[in-house]
Amino acid sequence: MNTDLTQKYSRLNLYCKFMALLTIIPILSTLIGALSPLLFYFFDTTNIGLDSGGYSFFISNGISEVDPKSLSLWQATLATLIDTLLILILSYAFYQLRLLFLNYSQSEYFSEKSASHCYTFGKMLVIWSIFGILSEPVLTLILTFNNDPSERYISFSFTSEDIMTLFPAISIMLIGQILKKACQIAEEN
Description:
Blueprint: H1 2-22, H2 24-33, H3 36-43, E1 51-52, E2 55-56, H4 73-105, H5 112-143, H6 160-188
Antiparallel strand pairs: 1-2
Helix pairs in contact: 1-4, 2-4, 3-4, 4-5, 5-6
């Protein structure tokens, strides 16, 4: 019976190692994608091979009518910083997920370190979601600032996808806090 449990844990550890390896893919793709806003706003390059059907994961949706050649330096710089920060937040979230899986692969299931990575992963997803929602109106205001006053606008959207991202992210964050509290209680006992 003990060997069955050992095999089960070793298999779980292998799955966690595999997942830690797989999380390198989104980390690298988001880090590569962090160049996308710079290339778009300063060099009018919309496709670096990471978009689909005219939609790029790395460029905000509110810029479809904006010609990057018409932007002033401050507009392009601010828009690049906002979009790049959004991408880097997501990249850091995946990095925390990778660290969590690495801890799990070493059988550190109920450690404060693992719980902290779980909490930080959830927190980064919440920050990413909220920052994405709030950055759209700021970006549209910045990008349309040079237009005639009648053509300036602020775009705001909150979709079911935002809710579907926020709810699990908040749940992961709470699970991380619960695990951290359980680890503290276990240490006290």
